[in-house]
Design brief:
This protein is mostly beta strands and 292 residues long. 14% of the residues lie in helices and 37% in strands. The longest helix is centred in the middle third of the chain and has 28 residues.
Length: 292
Amino acid sequence: MKKHLFILVTAIFSILFLISCEERNDNSIFWGQTYYYSDFLSKKYKPVRMEQTLVFEFNEDAIKHWDNVIHFELVDINTKKRIDEVILYKNGTACKDNFLEISTSDNEVVVGIEFLPTAHEGRYMLALQPESLNGLDRIDAIELGNGIVLEKENIMNPLAKGMTLGFIALAIMLIVWIVIMHLFVNPRTYFNRVTFDYGSGEGRPIRMGSAYKLVCTNNSKKISFFKKLFVGDIKYEVNDFWENELVITNGIRNKQIRFVGKASYDINPDMVMKGDNFTVTNNKGEEVNIQL
């Protein structure tokens, strides 16, 4: 081949676009976007290959006299430095050493670019440029207009995100449930302190705290943490006096006391308010004086 033989190799990069491509306002060619996320349980990251069909045209002199290969590499369009955080593909096959090999037999080539996991998040403006001219006098249009634009965004794994949002929604619902139960359904009692006198003097007072009812029974009972959290706290008065359970809780009216199970007992007076003293008599005629 003569030293000054003019061989024109023109790479027309802007003719054939994939349907998924779009042209930006800055006239750069947008190849695609990658949403990268780490593997989580069964949801594994699947690499995204952003592809374009490039058309190469060679003049008759190139076809007749040149049988060499041009090696194109991806470079940053501003710094002109080679980009190694991607994998370059030619017709679905990874390019050796990330060099795109083009010969006169290549007319249409599907070029793909795939981000490596180590690639930084952000917007990339790249260009395909030859490693060397390999004896050619000139190559036109070695850069793709104003650049190839790729974008990478690091996101949360969709499965992890879905589970996180589900847990957050569940937590919100549980909190709302707890608030409704403790403030509206089972609010704390009007009375804060209760004392019992079975005839031998007042015993140790029961402090109600956040409890919504007091259960008088002859069997010792415990309330679980979850029931206390999601339903409400219950205080117990345990004594053999109580043949059947008597529940003391809030009445409908403000500061009024309501009794559940009072059919088994005689309560005097019949209507009790917060701060009152009243007497309960069981079926054996035994009495207990209660101070709220």
